[in-house]
Design a protein that fits this description.
The protein has about 250 residues and is an alpha/beta fold. About 50% of the residues lie in helices and about 15% in strands. The structure holds guanosine-5'-diphosphate and magnesium ion.
Length: about 250
Amino acid sequence: MFFIFIVGTAGSGKSLLTSSLEKWFVGSDLSVTVVNLDPGVDSPPYTSDVDIREYVNYGEVMSSFGLGPNGALVASLDMAISHASDLRDEIIDTERDYVLVDCPGQMELFAYRNSGPLMVSSLKGDDPALSLYLLDSNIARTPTGYLSSTLLGISISIRFGLPQLNVLSKPDILTEIELEEIVEWGAEIYTLEEALDASEEGLRREYARSILEMLRTLDTATGNVPVSAKEMTGIDVLYGEMQRVFSGGDNLYE
Ligand SMILES: Nc1nc2c(ncn2[C@@H]2O[C@H](COP(=O)(O)OP(=O)(O)O)[C@@H](O)[C@H]2O)c(=O)[nH]1
Ligand SMILES: [Mg+2]
């Protein structure tokens, strides 16, 4: 089984991408299991085969402990950890080739507490896995937005310890020229440097330059594959990239 964890900030498009990837896999005769790991989601845009909501009741956690949305998510994830092996058993029982895991909305609560990375490693076991990190076009369309989202992606990949691909989500909201430019920033880091130089000054420009210096040595972490979950475009290219990672190329952590 190949595990694909879909991560990104709240609203970056994880759930819709999960749904579109599932459709694409099925349409390509590839067997796939869809896992919802977001305890707080009401109605995701897909039918999950395995669902964390079968094990924890977010609404009940909220009311019985008197917690707000974030506290309830943290408590729900902590509680769900004791069911991680049940979730994995359910996934294995589906006997499919690929597993798409839609991760919780509030990335910072999932990635930067112990329960998130623990859940990821328990679910995947010894199977091959990668994460898809969503760079939201709304943010990535400016040079500083692109830079800071890319940094967050690196930070998240360090937390989960998985090989990671950057997906530029919602590229359909960009003009063709904007899209070309953003793809270029990912492929040739000096173009991002030029854009930052042109748009920033003073301390912000200095920060950006130092960060770029670091990113130059990590060029696989800065690229991006545009995928519109809405228009179902770019998934074939993304699939090719995932195959490359699964076949052993490009794994920073092994
Ligand atoms: N235009 C456009 N909107 C998208 C795309 N993917 C997601 N969205 C919208 O972005 C919002 C958040 O998407 P969702 O999948 O719920 O994000 P999540 O919080 O990361 O799971 C929704 O209104 C989606 O319809 C896309 O490819 N193109
Ligand atoms: Mg979601």
